[in-house]
Amino acid sequence: MNINQLPFSQACENNKAPILDVIRPLFLNSTHLLEIGTGTAQHAVHFAQHLPHLIWQTSDQQGYLEGIEMRLAQVQLMNLRQPLALDVTQTWPLAKQANIDAMFTANTLHIMAKEMVKAFFNGVGEHLQSQGQLCIYGPFNYEGNYTSESNARFDIWLAEQNPQSAIRDIEWIIQLAKEQGLKLMADHTMPANNRLLHFIKM
Ligand SMILES: C[S@@+](CC[C@H](N)C(=O)[O-])C[C@H]1O[C@@H](n2cnc3c(N)ncnc32)[C@H](O)[C@@H]1O
């Protein structure tokens, strides 16, 4: 892979500023953040640049690591960490004393199969410190209903790519979080029919 082949998402370019506006105050007192499903790493670079007090640990499935490493090599950021190979269904490659007091994930829970979403929350429950912050960005359904026509179309497209992918019901997400001791603090409206869910581990 060369620099001209860097994975790129236009959606990330569009949503990184609005996401930063929401997460900046939430991560004000956080020190060590783990991102799950870093993808193109456009978010990681942007957020690490604007939140220099926070160590931003990237991670993703093995196949994404080369692209992430290449994008990280384009910037010199002391607080941005090389990606961990982290598949939520496997043992998370974290030290016992990783001191993770914040976690972030964007556009992942509708890609993951249901069992992976459960594994994601098990991992959060195991590795996020008490009083830690969890922010989840993406589309969600409410009481089984889409919030927009475009989300309904997106869900059909998702199922065509992978029948196990789907926009998740927020009620299920809140329940999985609760089982891991996480409380929903806020559900922010975001552009393009997305949400940003803020949880705290009690
Ligand atoms: C649509 S991409 C989103 C990437 C990026 N966060 C963004 O907002 O553009 C979905 C991401 O979920 C990750 N993902 C899917 N299944 C996963 C799993 N089992 N464990 C960890 N990450 C997973 C993919 O590797 C990919 O990075």
TrEMBL record:
Matching InterPro entries: DUF938 (IPR010342), SAM-dependent_MTases_sf (IPR029063)
Signal sequence range: none
Domain of life: Bacteria
Pfam families from the UniProt entry: DUF938
Protein name (record): Methylase
Organism whose genome encodes this protein: Shewanella woodyi (strain ATCC 51908 / MS32)
